[in-house]
Automatic annotation (TrEMBL), chain A:
<keyword id="KW-0001">2Fe-2S</keyword>
<protein>
    <submittedName>
        <fullName>(2Fe-2S)-binding protein</fullName>
    </submittedName>
</protein>
<dbReference type="GO" id="GO:0046872">
    <property type="term" value="F:metal ion binding"/>
</dbReference>
<dbReference type="InterPro" id="IPR036884">
    <property type="entry name" value="2Fe-2S-bd_dom_sf"/>
</dbReference>
<dbReference type="InterPro" id="IPR012675">
    <property type="entry name" value="Beta-grasp_dom_sf"/>
</dbReference>
<dbReference type="InterPro" id="IPR002888">
    <property type="entry name" value="2Fe-2S-bd"/>
</dbReference>
<dbReference type="InterPro" id="IPR019546">
    <property type="entry name" value="TAT_signal_bac_arc"/>
</dbReference>
<dbReference type="InterPro" id="IPR006058">
    <property type="entry name" value="2Fe2S_fd_BS"/>
</dbReference>
<dbReference type="InterPro" id="IPR052914">
    <property type="entry name" value="Aldehyde_Oxdr_Iron-Sulfur"/>
</dbReference>
UniProtKB/TrEMBL annotation, chain B:
<dbReference type="InterPro" id="IPR037165">
    <property type="entry name" value="AldOxase/xan_DH_Mopterin-bd_sf"/>
</dbReference>
<dbReference type="Pfam" id="PF02738">
    <property type="entry name" value="MoCoBD_1"/>
</dbReference>
<dbReference type="InterPro" id="IPR008274">
    <property type="entry name" value="AldOxase/xan_DH_MoCoBD1"/>
</dbReference>
<dbReference type="InterPro" id="IPR036856">
    <property type="entry name" value="Ald_Oxase/Xan_DH_a/b_sf"/>
</dbReference>
<dbReference type="GO" id="GO:0005506">
    <property type="term" value="F:iron ion binding"/>
</dbReference>
<dbReference type="InterPro" id="IPR000674">
    <property type="entry name" value="Ald_Oxase/Xan_DH_a/b"/>
</dbReference>
<protein>
    <submittedName>
        <fullName>Xanthine dehydrogenase family protein molybdopterin-binding subunit</fullName>
    </submittedName>
</protein>
<feature type="domain" description="Aldehyde oxidase/xanthine dehydrogenase a/b hammerhead">
    <location>
        <begin position="20"/>
        <end position="139"/>
    </location>
</feature>
<dbReference type="Pfam" id="PF20256">
    <property type="entry name" value="MoCoBD_2"/>
</dbReference>
């Protein structure tokens, strides 16, 4: 970590704390193997991309059934990894603060807010996003129910609502309208499709289909 | 013709894309080498920027540029116009000017002082945190209540004071009510973050993925700002994650991103944070209203005065139709309105769903309830006694008004007869129970739009319009219209929209889009039909000798209505005439009859609430909303618009308030955890009813608008129900429990 009391480097000059971090961090095992020439390059801020490489860590995760070997910065959230690096834009960003539910995905079958989940914490886990639930030709029964009940308007909260809805049924929290409302309250729909969303979820639950 | 004879409920045409996540919103288009822009906002609301240290930010990894007032690239035509006409004229410039990243003057909290661009979102965000500023801070003026004395009359003629009959006639009435009502600042908060993705495809051409309610408006604004041929500015917004009004103009930070993309020579994407959406893309302005009302012993209104004072920015006068509905909703011989603004150190407001009418209806419809109580009249009966059969403002007939029927059907559905005549007298366990109602109204409009319709030889149909679908189901409604005019099966119709390469359409807002673009689809499809009929009835053609009026279209067949067997397939007709398609583009707008009538949609909202007398908690337990919005084209999506208005109305009534700390002029609850929009648990059983009677004076489908009336008036219905339950009148939204406990 940077000691805030240290003087700041001038632009274009190497940042001492950055250099120190790269040289001494024991967390980066790979660094031991770093050729001195590379460190010199970093010292001279010559190769930002090389520096970037050191800031990334390997991540092995299954996403929608596919094993992925990735390299990500520790500060990247699962949400931004999905949207900005993997092109899985079905998962939405509505607040980035765990306040809206638009980013809901399943990690090992549990619903989580992808914006509050650092990507690296999914190491060895199974992530399911809306893209992994069904496709336009082969909708999941919850997607069918949302379509039939018009459980959305602008559609932006919808993937999160659907991922949450599937989990809500699986958790056994979809027995009554009140229960659904309570257990779905982490998913905001500003268009206000709530009544139709609740109807869709109860419909799926009543049908006894396997979600 | 009846536009949907079978009242077919149709699943949303874009539904599959929305439920699978394949619908692409602006930030989701992948352009190679896209750079990420993050805004650094001012932490003071008024003063000057003294020093801005950007060195560390500029040297941070991956940073491509830090743009400030010192190095912001030039934007040749700064005055980007406001987009749509949701509810009157766009904000008007004042003597003060705000130009993003030009100069050191700070006019409002969160005003961008730097825009940092890097190769990844994380790097841009980190670098933005390194920008440090020092300011000379002045005491900000942000409290409307403290600065009422500085109120000014807006210069716009449309907003001038109104008077009919005798001035202040209410004073002469035996029963008089004077009361103040307050609607706080509320923020649109659509679920999708605001921003833009901009790419210069050549030195003189631009590609924009925008979050706008009107791609043509954004196209005009950017063409003007960068002095480009509008045809070289392509704007795409097929999907928009909600707007509610905040996408009715092109915001300065969007223009800045375009300038930065030019400078950097690569695509630049801005996705604002939720808290920046409180500061930089408008809000419903905090508005204080006074209603003065006089009625005689028979329950007839004698005089009415409606005054409103709203906040605006120092640099633009934003106005809306807050006092409008009071001029015509009730038959009142003497009526005056006054609308005033207070310029504060705030970002500029923008229309928010229902816009000013939703604010105004809270005052007027609360006052109607209060007056009914004074008169010992049922509030519904009081409204009926003052029902306006013709428009008292313009002295002309209404094109259609089925409000009486709406009252009756809503009252029956909620069980209005169960309403306790004495407030505070009905209980369910420890809860007090009350019923309330209100009326809403909004202009029914028809603007101008162009539509292209292509009937292919294979019998499929293509419909094209640049219009944006922000969520109401525009694409679905247009599909249903085309289906019913041309008889092409629903699954053979493709509607393309949300792109400037398509024929121009107005900005989505003001509940006017189905009326406007739907009419253009209707007219263009009718022109295609006429061509088909000509081809089919020519001498030697399959239906030769038949008249146009005898013919109908269904399931891809053109047939003689009296003799169903006499028919020809549309595809066959085109083939016989060696036509690959019939391709028509027409412009469509309302006719002169629009001057002869007053056009309004109406809603009636009934709610039942439970109030806990010990905790002050208010729960809405049942709502019935009735819409008189002409012929319903798409019953399914129309019902959704209504329930959406109810959810918004519950938030407006009970929880929504953007709170400023006036010492600093800054928000204290600028996030979705502290600014409470309605969530699942807040929204009860909702019943929606549509009167569903066509208004053919407005357009050939007979459809009036619905988006605004779904919300307008709702908050008053809740306030009235709370009064009925408790005997406590809350005149300041939201009705939070502290306001109910305070007096007990
Ligand atoms: S984006 Fe994750 S909860 Fe809102
Ligand atoms: S559908 Fe628009 S926010 Fe839920």
């Amino acid at each position: 970590m940077r000691d805030e009391s240290q003087p700041l480097p001038e632009p274009g000059q190497p940042d001492p704390s950055r250099r120190a971090f790269l040289k001494h961090s024991s967390a980066l095992a790979a660094l031991a193997l770093t050729p001195p020439v590379a460190l010199t390059a970093i010292d001279h801020s010559l190769d930002e991309r090389l520096a970037a490489a050191f800031e990334q860590l390997p991540l092995q995760v299954r996403i929608n059934g596919q094993a992925q070997q990735l390299s990500v910065e520790p500060r990247v959230t699962l949400l931004d990894l999905l949207r900005e690096q993997l092109g899985l834009t079905g998962t939405k960003k509505g607040c980035d603060h765990g306040q809206c539910g638009a980013c809901t995905v399943h990690v090992d079958g549990q619903r989580v807010n992808a914006c509050l989940t650092l990507a690296l914490t999914t190491e060895g886990r199974e992530v399911t996003t809306i893209e992994g639930l069904g496709s336009e030709d082969k909708l999941h029964c919850m997607q069918e129910a949302f379509l039939r009940h018009d459980g959305f308007q602008c559609g932006y909260c919808t993937p999160g609502q659907i991922m949450s809805a599937v989990a809500c049924v699986r958790e056994g929290h979809a027995d009554t309208p009140e229960q659904v409302r309570e257990y779905m309250s982490g998913n905001i729909c500003r268009c206000g499709a709530y009544a139709n969303i609740v109807a869709a979820i109860l419909d799926v639950k009543a049908s006894g289909q396997k979600v | 013709m009846d536009i949907n004879p079978k009242n077919q409920p149709v699943d949303r045409v874009d539904g599959r894309q929305k439920v699978t996540g394949s619908a692409k919103y602006f930030a989701e288009f992948a352009l190679p080498r896209t750079a990420y822009c993050v805004i650094v906002g001012s932490t003071i609301a008024r003063g000057t920027l003294d020093q801005l240290d950007t060195k560390r930010a500029a040297a941070a990894p991956g940073v491509l540029g830090v743009f400030t007032h010192l190095n912001m690239p030039a934007i040749p035509g700064w005055d980007a116009p406001v987009g749509g006409q949701a509810d009157g004229p766009p904000p008007q410039p004042t003597a003060e000017t705000y130009r993003i990243l030009r100069g050191t003057k700070i006019l409002f909290d969160g005003q961008p002082i730097a825009m940092v661009v890097a190769d990844t979102f994380e790097r841009a965000t980190y670098a933005a945190s390194l920008v440090k500023a020092t300011y000379t801070r002045q005491t900000p003026k942000t409290d409307l209540n403290k600065h009422l004395a500085a109120a000014i009359a807006p210069s716009i003629p449309w907003m001038k004071d109104y008077s009919r009959g005798q001035a202040e006639a209410y004073k002469t009435a035996p029963v008089v009510l004077e009361a103040d009502y307050v609607v706080p600042t509320e923020v649109h908060n659509p679920m999708e973050m605001h921003g833009i993705l901009a790419q210069w495809t050549s030195p003189t051409s631009l590609l924009l993925y925008a979050k706008t309610q009107g791609v043509n408006a954004t196209q005009r604004a950017m063409a003007q700002a960068f002095k480009l041929d509008p045809r070289n500015v392509k704007v795409h917004t097929e999907f928009m994650g909600g707007g509610f009004g905040m996408g009715l103009r092109t915001w300065p930070q969007e223009t800045a991103v375009v300038a930065i993309a030019r400078q950097l020579g690569r695509p630049v994407k801005l996705v604002m944070t939720r808290s920046q959406m409180f500061q930089l893309v408008g809000y419903r302005p905090h508005t204080r209203q006074t209603i003065r009302m006089g009625a005689d012993a028979t329950g007839k209104l004698v005089g009415l005065v409606h005054e409103a004072t709203a906040e605006t920015a120092t640099y633009e006068d934003f106005t809306e139709g807050t006092v409008n509905m009071s001029k015509f909703l009730y038959a009142c011989p003497s009526m005056q309105t006054r609308y005033r603004l207070v310029r504060l150190d705030r970002g500029v407001p923008i229309w928010m769903r229902g816009p000013g009418e939703a604010t105004g209806a809270f005052a007027l419809e609360s006052a109607m309830d209060e007056m009914a109580h004074k008169l010992h009249l049922d509030p519904l009966e009081f409204r009926l006694r003052n029902y306006s059969e013709t428009d008292p403002e313009h002295n002309r007939p209404y094109s259609s008004k089925n409000l009486r029927e709406a009252y009756e059907r809503g009252a029956a559905a909620i069980g209005w007869r169960n309403r306790p005549a004495t407030p505070g007298s009905q209980r369910e366990g420890e809860w007090l129970v009350g019923y309330g109602m209100s009326t809403g109204t909004f202009n029914a409009m028809r603007w101008q739009a162009t539509v292209r319709v292509v009937l292919q030889a294979d019998g499929s149909l293509l419909v094209q319009s640049a219009v944006t679908d922000i969520g109401p189901g525009t694409g679905t409604a247009l599909t249903i219209i085309a289906h019913n005019v041309l008889g092409v099966p629903l699954d053979r119709i493709k509607v393309q929209y949300g792109d400037t390469s398509l024929p121009p359409a107005p900005t989505q807002g003001g509940s006017a889009i189905v009326s406007t673009v739907g009419s253009a689809v209707f007219d263009t499809c009718s022109a295609v039909k006429q061509t088909l009929v000509e081809l089919a009835t020519r001498p030697g053609a399959p239906l030769a000798g038949h008249q146009a009026e005898e013919l109908a279209l269904a399931d891809g067949q053109l047939f003689v209505e009296a003799k169903l067997a006499t028919q020809v397939a549309v595809a066959e007709l085109l083939r016989q005439n060696q036509l690959a398609s019939i391709d028509k583009t027409t412009e469509s707008k309302g006719g002169p009859e629009q001057q002869k009538y007053s056009f309004y949609s109406y809603s009636v909202h009934f709610v039942r609430v439970r109030v806990n007398p010990r905790t002050g908690v208010v729960r809405v337990t049942k709502t019935v909303s009735v819409a008189d919005s002409g012929r319903i084209i798409s019953p399914k999506t129309a019902a959704s618009q209504m329930i959406g208005g109810v959810a918004g109305g519950i938030g407006m009534a009970l929880t929504e308030e953007a709170v400023l700390d006036h010492r600093f002029g800054r928000y204290v609850n600028n996030n979705l955890a502290d600014y409470h929009v309605a969530v699942h648990a807040d929204v009860p059983e909702i019943e929606t009813i549509t009167i569903d009677k066509p208004d053919y004076l407005l357009n050939p489908m007979g459809a009036k608008g619905m988006g605004e009336i779904a919300l307008i008036g709702f908050a008053a219905a809740v306030a009235n129900a709370v009064f009925n339950a408790t005997g406590r009148r809350v005149r300041e939204l939201p009705i939070t429990l502290d306001k109910l406990l305070a007096v007990s």
